[in-house]
Amino acid sequence: MTRTLLPLALAALLVWLLSGCMGATEAPSPAGTSRAGAPIFSTSTVGVAPFRPTPTPRSPRPLTPITATRDYPVLESYARWMPVIDGSTSTLPLRALILCRAYAVPCGWDDAYGEEWHRQVAAAGDSTAATMFRHVVENRAPSHGTHGAYDALVAAEADLILVARPPSADERDVARDAQVELEGVPVAYDAFVFFVNSENPVQSITLDQARQIYSGELTNWADLGGPDMPIFPFQRNENSGSQELMEAMVMGETPMVASPEMVLISMGEPLIEVAHQPAGIAYSVYYYVSQMVEQPNMRLLAIDGVMPSPESLADGSYPLRSEVLAVRRRSPSATVRELYEWLLSDEGQSLVAESGYVPIRPVR
Questions:
Q1: Which of 24, 178, 181, 216 has a CA positioned 20 to 30 A from the CA of residue 122?
Q2: Is there a contact between 128 and 134 (Cβ–Cβ < 8 Å)?
């Protein structure tokens, strides 16, 4: 009898904890209605200046840890309360760690690269609880990529997304058509980086040279102090996070050379291509290249003489520093609102650092 009632008691306790400590929750909030003349995307008003380090929000409540259990119904019951946190491929480790912290499940890096070509954060061990938790991550932290995550947020299929850029013009149009207002806040620093084959002796390029390579003005590595061989400038697909950053941070009004044969679809493909092409160059975000993949046949380039590193991101000396944004609909549920604010608290920023990202502000 006691064995039968235990799962029910735990489930009831979870409901009480979540309603009291994390705020009243409900199903994923419906798409909000855009007010007349209101911007489709804006930075948060939670004590946040646009895209700059910010003070801690007023009295953020800690994300209440829930002890993991081998009882699947209880674990699944809590999963239904947890917001769906979608995002870019590069933010999956951080999103998985948020769930690890919420469930108090020991997690670590899983070095089994598999078909995705990158490692991930997973529950430690092969226990039943770890297996169940992996199922929860798959359902509550899907990775539809940056563009897909924005679409999911607008369609109310995600409650919060973690992405490496603001919405593109196309994504703002989709939100406007759906009468959905989005709100974002920076929670971590990342960087836009270029990399080459390890056999290429070129160590650094300027921002202007990067622009000239991808506009077709520079076509030979000899023009950059390297060997006499043509430059193979690999690109990413339209609306991908990397491509939007490239156009916004590097190209500006300068059009990229049309090279359909150089356009790559996934985040892993540029690293694979450059590793096998001594004349290649490609781009991505620093976190993905430095934390999630291990490719010995490629290396990062310095930009204007500054290498990307945690230090150059923290002090702003790297010219192409970017930000990881937490984005939500303007009228979220109480749980989403508290998670959004928690990410800027001391505990949330410590978790950001634990994931390998550079926190948006110093962690005390």
A1: 24
A2: no
Range of the domain at 118: 13-188+324-359
Distances from the Cα of 232 to the Cα of 17, 247, 262, angstroms: 56, 18, 8
Residue 8 lies in a domain: no
Long-range contact set of residues 22-26: C-beta below 8 Å, sequence gap at least 24: 22/61, 22/63, 22/64, 22/81, 22/334, 22/335, 22/338, 23/61, 23/334, 23/335, 23/337, 23/338, 24/334, 25/81, 25/333, 25/334, 25/335, 26/333, 26/334
The terminus-to-terminus CA distance of the chain in angstroms comes to: 48
Here the CATH number for the domain that contains residue 52 is 3.40.190.10
User: Tens digit of pLDDT for each residue in 207-243?
Assistant: 999 999 999 999 999 999 999 999 999 999 988 889 9
Same structural domain for residues 302 and 270? yes
The two three-digit tokens of residue 213, written as one number = 């390579």
Q: How many whole angstroms separate alpha carbon 161 and alpha carbon 149?
A: 6
Q: 111-156: per-residue pLDDT in tens?
A: 655 544 567 777 776 666 677 777 777 778 888 889 999 999 999 9
Ramachandran angles phi, psi of 231, nearest 5°: -85, 130
Considering the domain architecture, whether residues 177 and 29 belong to the same structural domain is answered as yes
Asked whether residue 7 is assigned to any structural domain, the reply reads: no
Q: How many domains does the chain have?
A: 2
Antiparallel, parallel or unpaired: β 182-197 and 321-329: antiparallel
